[in-house]
Amino acid sequence: MLTIHADSRGHAFLVKGEWIEAVGPLEELTAAQPRVRVRAWPGILTPGFVNPYGNELLERTYHPDPREADELGTEPLTGDALGSLTLDDARWGASARRGIQRLLAHGTVAVACEPFGSRAVRDAVRRSGLGTVGRLGTPDDPPSLDPFGSARPPMPATERREGSAARFAVFDVRDEEELAERGAGTCVATVVAGRLVFRRR
Q: How far apart are CA 12 and CA 52, in angstroms?
């Protein structure tokens, strides 16, 4: 199935399955494929981001279930709060899935990580389609879901072009400068493996 994703600047990706078939101005892609479905997004198309805290956010942080909000709150738990919990594989897997959704909501298309030690976390990452890249060592700064929320510079994913994997994110901002100012909470859509895996409502 073919789909064109376009932003407010007229930039567009033609997606076929899990791959980007063409990149260019919206008017050129629609002229070449006049019957293709067009998703017109507010803001800017980007390659998305690589979050450098894969292990910290998915294996060393518990993301509470909304049904646990009265007891645990809604914010991710680490440190002593995490240590007070008894977590089996099922709860770790569910936590990882919620954590992945939070990452996707910030335009993350991949995480940098060491090999995950938890099978439940590995399975959650694999099934989500979220990419993984290796890293050397452990970051010494506090982890953040927002690529712009830590002391280190954000890590954009590889630029999307014809033949690239269909992984990208859309942010409701005018340009990259405003994105840096307002952060990745402005994400309105994230696509992974050609699938729309996050859409802000």
A: 27
